[in-house]
Automatic annotation (TrEMBL):
One of its GO terms (cellular component) is plasma membrane. This is Membrane fusion protein, multidrug efflux system. The keyword Coiled coil applies. It is a lipid-anchor. InterPro entries: MdtA-like_b-barrel, MdtA-like_BSH, MdtA-like_C, MdtA-like_HH, RND_pump_MFP. It is found in: Cell inner membrane. Belongs to the membrane fusion protein (MFP) (TC 8.A.1) family.
Amino acid sequence: MRWLPVALVALAFVSACSKDEPKEVERPPVDVTVIKVEPKDTQVIPEYDGQTLSSRQVTIMARVDGFLDKRVYTEGSMVKAGEVMFLQDPRPFQAQLDAAKGALAAQQARWHTAQKNLARVKPLVKLNALSQKDLDDAIGSELSAAASVQTARADVEQAQLNLNYTTITSPLAGRSSYARVQEGAYVSFSNNLLTYVDQVDPIYVHFSLSENQLLEISGMVESGILQQPKDMNYEVRLKLADGKDYGHSGRITFADADFNTSTGTYLLRATLPNPDAELRPGQFVRVSLLGSIALNAILVPQQAVLQGDKGHFVIVVDKDSKAQVRPVEVGSWYRDQWFINSGLAAGDVVVVDGMIKLAPGARVKATEASDKPAPAAK
């Protein structure tokens, strides 16, 4: 209902200005609460809408075709790096490994025979008991057998890998998703996605600045109104959807190179610790940036700033203790106050309570807000 008193105040001022009273009636001073404008360096804490996301997401996939024997992990739980998540039927792959080992043994025996035969042929060729062709054939047989052994050894390694792939583990620590394939199903290339694991410590938070916001900040910095932290090293804090402050702070670790042409916004990413996995990917949060200082800033309580047809205004008390309307240009909010970009100066006295009873030129009895007595305890 903030606009009701604003409308009444504006109406009172307009009505008082429009009436042509033949004789002014002396009225008693109106009790009002005021503050005295005192410019000072003030911390600026801009807030933006943000969303959390995993700092690293991996897909858990089956590398070999076969039946899924068992889901080992609990869906949605935190898993450790190297923790077993799924087991496939290993028996076909164990059989392939045994067959590959047998083939390797056979090739090794063939190579051994070829080596022995070559060793016998060489001295006989020197004695001209065998021809050069016989030697060449023996050398070729030995080399061929050696190559076959190498191929068979590679087949064993591949079979061992395939057998190992039937035990499916997580490559990182993080929060698991639900299983996309159930136990007993046959897994092949078309359905080998089993689940996801999201690393949540640290966690990322994406938020964006509009082009107007970025230009406003740049203009304030260039004009000396705003001082940014050294090396743009802002402290990042979060407020959760229920209004609770998140217990850890972070830093901005990424700024996009370009504006998004679809949204006209500039993407930033903050990285925050999340040791207790309190934050999950996809949550909406309010992002606060700490570190900027507004130099010689003028702030007034939000209730002191009214709005009429011509924009924002405040009621000030002049040197004759009379109420006057003062147009102002407002900036952003800071807690329960407005930054005033123009319209007020040091020493101005601004009414913060009692405006509803005022008319232009009305005499006032001003009480400093800090001097106003506290209400009696009930």
